[in-house]
């Protein structure tokens, strides 16, 4: 499958690993918008939030259980923000479900730029 995040999981594209287990892989965003900018992805290919269902939602639950630890490992020691972009209006560019963890500085209070 032609998915860059599947290739990162397979080790075919290099990445800066922050955390890994059987379910998920976490690595630093190549274009960081904060001192801590980590992406957490399921090892199973799920295209977006729109593809979450009763069969695979346990994966998302496991990711959320781990996010506090991954945020700490990524350098967010004073709070963090979790973002999942879904579809064109949200500007999703990679169609493998991913959760951005942003922190390491005081983030802007607004949730979008307008
Ligand atoms: P989104 O716009 O929510 O789909 O986010 C995709 C994110 O993936 C962007 O923040 C990119 O900087 C990031 N990204 C794309 N390619 C890579 C890569 N090879 N390694 C790390 N992060 C990447
Ligand atoms: Zn994928």
What does this structure look like?
This protein has a 5-stranded antiparallel beta sheet with strand order 1-2-3-5-4, with helices on one face. The radius of gyration is 14 Å and the shape is globular. It contains 2 helices and 5 strands, in the order H-E-E-E-H-E-E. By secondary structure, the protein is of the alpha+beta class. Helix content is 22%, strand content 22%. It has helices at 4-10, 57-74; strands at residues 17-20, 24-28, 36-42, 80-83, 99-103. The chain has a single domain (4-103), classed as HIT-like (HIT family, subunit A, 2-Layer Sandwich), CATH 3.30.428. Adenosine monophosphate (AMP) binds next to loops.
Q: What class do helices, strands and sheet pairing give?
A: alpha+beta
- How do the strands line up in the largest sheet? 1-2-3-5-4
Count of individual beta strands? 5
Average pLDDT score: 96
Major sheet details: 5 strands, antiparallel
- The CATH homology group name: HIT-like
CATH-assigned fold name: HIT family, subunit A
CA-based gyration radius: 14 Å
The general outline is globular
Name the helicity range: 10-25%
């Amino acid at each position: 499958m032609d998915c860059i995040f599947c290739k990162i999981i397979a080790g075919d594209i290099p990445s800066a690993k922050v955390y890994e287990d059987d379910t998920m892989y976490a690595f630093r965003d190549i274009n960081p918008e904060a001192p801590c900018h980590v992406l957490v992805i399921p090892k199973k290919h799920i295209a977006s939030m729109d593809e979450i269902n009763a069969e695979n939602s346990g994966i998302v639950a496991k990711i959320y259980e781990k996010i506090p630890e991954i945020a700490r490992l990524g350098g967010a020691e004073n709070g963090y923000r979790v973002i999942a972009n879904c579809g064109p209006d949200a500007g999703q560019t990679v169609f493998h479900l991913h959760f951005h963890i942003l922190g390491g500085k005081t983030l802007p209070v607004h949730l979008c730029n307008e």
